[in-house]
Design brief:
By secondary structure, the chain is an all-alpha fold. It has five helices and no strands.
C-alpha cells in the first residue's frame, strides 16, 4: 500500500514538472504574438502618447500665444514621435518585419486620428488632406520600422 502511494506521488510530481515545462514553453511561444497583436499594441501606445502630448500642449497654450504655423508644426512633431513610439512598441524585441509593422502602425494610427478628428469636429473627411495624412503615416511608420529593425540586427 505504501509503495502505491509513493508511486502516485512521484508520478504526480513528474506530471507537475511536465505541466510547468509546457506552461513555460507556451509562454515563450506567446511572446511573438504576431503582426496583429504587435500592431494594435503599437497603435495604442502611439494614441496614448498623442493624448498626453495634446493635453500638455493645450495647457502650455494657455500661457503662450502661438501662431497657427507653430501649432501645426508642433502637431506634426507629436504625430512623428507618437508613430515612432508606436513602432518601437510594435517591434518589441524582434528584428524581423520592421517595415511591415511600421507601415501598419503608421496607417492605423493616422486612420484612428482622422476618425477621431472628424467625430470631434463634426466634419466630413476631406479626401485629399486626409490621404496626405495617411501617406505620411505610412511613410514615417515604414521608415521608423526599417531604422529600428536595422538597429536590432547590428
Amino acid at each position: 500500500m505504501e509503495s502505491n502511494a509513493r508511486e502516485f506521488l512521484t508520478g504526480r510530481d513528474r506530471g507537475m514538472d511536465s505541466f510547468r515545462r509546457s506552461v513555460r514553453r507556451s509562454v515563450r511561444r506567446g511572446r511573438g504574438k504576431g503582426l496583429l497583436g504587435a500592431v494594435l499594441k503599437g497603435v495604442l501606445v502611439g494614441a496614448s502618447i498623442t493624448v498626453i502630448s495634446v493635453a500638455l500642449f493645450a495647457l502650455i497654450l494657455n500661457w503662450w500665444d502661438a501662431s497657427d504655423r507653430a501649432i501645426t508644426a508642433i502637431n506634426q512633431v507629436v504625430k512623428f514621435v507618437s508613430i515612432l513610439a508606436g513602432v518601437a512598441a510594435a517591434m518589441g524585441g524582434e528584428a524581423q518585419g520592421g517595415t511591415m509593422r511600421g507601415i501598419c502602425v503608421g496607417l492605423l494610427y493616422m486612420a484612428l486620428g482622422i476618425i477621431c478628428y472628424c467625430l470631434l469636429m463634426g466634419k466630413n473627411p476631406e479626401f485629399s488632406g486626409y490621404m496626405a495624412d495617411l501617406g505620411m503615416g505610412i511613410a514615417s511608420g515604414g521608415l521608423f520600422g526599417m531604422i529600428l529593425a536595422s538597429r536590432k540586427n547590428t
